[in-house]
Specification:
Number of strands: 8
Number of helices: 2
Structural class: alpha/beta
Strand order of the largest sheet: 2-8-7-4-5
CATH architecture of the largest domain: Sandwich
Largest sheet: 5 strands, mixed
CATH class of the largest domain: Mainly Beta
Oligomer: single chain
Strand content: 25-35%
CATH topology of the largest domain: Immunoglobulin-like
Order of helices and strands: HEEEEHEEEE
Distance between the termini: 62 Å
CATH superfamily of the largest domain: Cupredoxins -  blue copper proteins
Amino acid sequence: MPPTPKKHNKMKIKSILALSTLALTCFNSPAKADSAPAKTVSIIAYDTMKFNVTKIEAHPGQKLTVELKNEGTAPKAAMTHNWILLKAGEDATSYSMAAMTAKADGYEPKALASKVVASIPHLGPKESGKVTFTVPSTPGNYPFLCTFPAHCMAGMKGVLVVK
């Protein structure tokens, strides 16, 4: 037996309310940055003490994967490369100077660990590494560098621009 007109109207109203609630939930919920796939940036390091990428742009809260590949041929003991991302406002050269005396810690001074956002350890020739992290929520310029002695001073650095 078909529903009475009164029951049919109640069912229509309930259906409309349910669909309206669902639509409002979908359109009013902010998209979460961490639900999107990570943006991937590939950086190549060379024996010339240069990165092929010196500027990365990202949005606050975005997931970011940085892949570093050492395309050099010099022995690891003589020419190794890493990637260190510092907090906004930190000075890459000052960090690099402090890192020179931290060989036992992979040229990452433990006393300055609070200044580091993300890192990839030192890589020898033809080695690669990567790190995935959430971009800081505060817009600004976040310096990155290689901390092997003298590499930053030779120009092996760049910036993550968060906007």
